[in-house]
Fold:
Amino acid sequence: MNFELTQEQSMIKKMMREFAEGEVAPGAEERDRTKAFPEEVFSKLGELGILGLPFPEEYGGGGSDTISFAIVVEELSRVCASTGITYSAHISLGGAPIYLFGTEEQKQKYLTKICSGESLGAFGLTEPNAGSDAGGTETEAIEEGNDFVINGSKCFITNASYAQFLALTAVTGRNEKGEKEISAIIVPTDADGFTVLDQYEKMGLHASNTTELVLENVRVSQDHLLGNRGEGFKQFLQTLDGGRIGIGAMAVGIAQGAYEKALQYAKERKQFGKTLSQFQAIQFKLADMAMKIELARNMVYKAAWMKDQGKSFTKEASMCKLFASEMCMEVTSQAVQIHGGYGYMKDYHVERYMRDAKLLEIGEGTSEIQRLVIARQIGCS
Ligand code: CAA
Structure:
């Protein structure tokens, strides 16, 4: 067993720390306030060559591994969670299903654009009536000649305004038992009848793009089918396994950033003639925060390692997502607490970390759904 990062992973961590401090952190507060998408940051991430990091070089990717992907998400989220989620969804929800299930032609056509940053990656699973019950898909794709004609809507879709295309789930028929046949179809976002609605007003992650999609008689040829007909639901659940590692990494990064700010503040702020860091009540809070971040990071890296080894990692992905997101909520709340009244003020940034953290207990499967997945994985029925 070896807990050291490889030379390449250490190099990526160092590079991303410098990039995040120099290029992402300075605008984070303003982007949160103005809800401006980090477009400039993304073009610079493209110049760094990491927009296709874990995908093979033949598609323009970096040929790297999932731990490196997690490190990038962690370092971006440590200073700006909106940038972290944009990157995480780009790779794990946008690029991954095309890489995993696409034909060679689809990979050449679409995955290459994701790796180059020509298109941001997104996927469409959730619907107004299909949230935790992701199989409750109502969007329909009816066969007409050589085409699918798609009608329906998708909600809470990350990155959709900046995606040239996305894979989405739709009901393409029913089996003999009357059960829905759900398939994944790649749809260009500029297709006639495809509308990306305005940004939602959210609690946090203000600079991340989240929108609703409406499809009215959107017509695509059947060669837009991703993988086999009827396998869309399973493909998307498999995609979410990878996405949950990204959310776990985001949680570690956000918590790390909030913890560092709280530690620094505790060393500087004096009350009753001593710094806060000299009071055991605050020391114990900081010790617990440091320990839980370390534990969550180990869980995220282990799930990522299992994915790279080709092992089943559904349980580990859910465990790391669940533990890390709940840890992140606790750590960011304690970071605000340590700052006292100042923590409640925008100037000290930790309130942003706390608002951003909440999404991690909800997105890509709520904490309740993660417990359900883990319970099934350990044999409860
Ligand atoms: N990988 C591959 N296949 C899987 C799988 C996985 N991780 N998990 C289950 N499957 C298979 C099952 O084996 C089963 O196959 P069979 O039909 O052959 O037996 C099939 O998929 C259906 O599985 P279940 O019976 O377990 O399905 P279910 O309806 O009970 O639902 C669930 C399972 C875990 C609750 C699932 O619906 C789920 O994860 N829900 C949460 C969805 C979610 O995370 N949504 C957030 C998406 S994020 C988003 O949309 C916005 C964005 O941009 C970020």
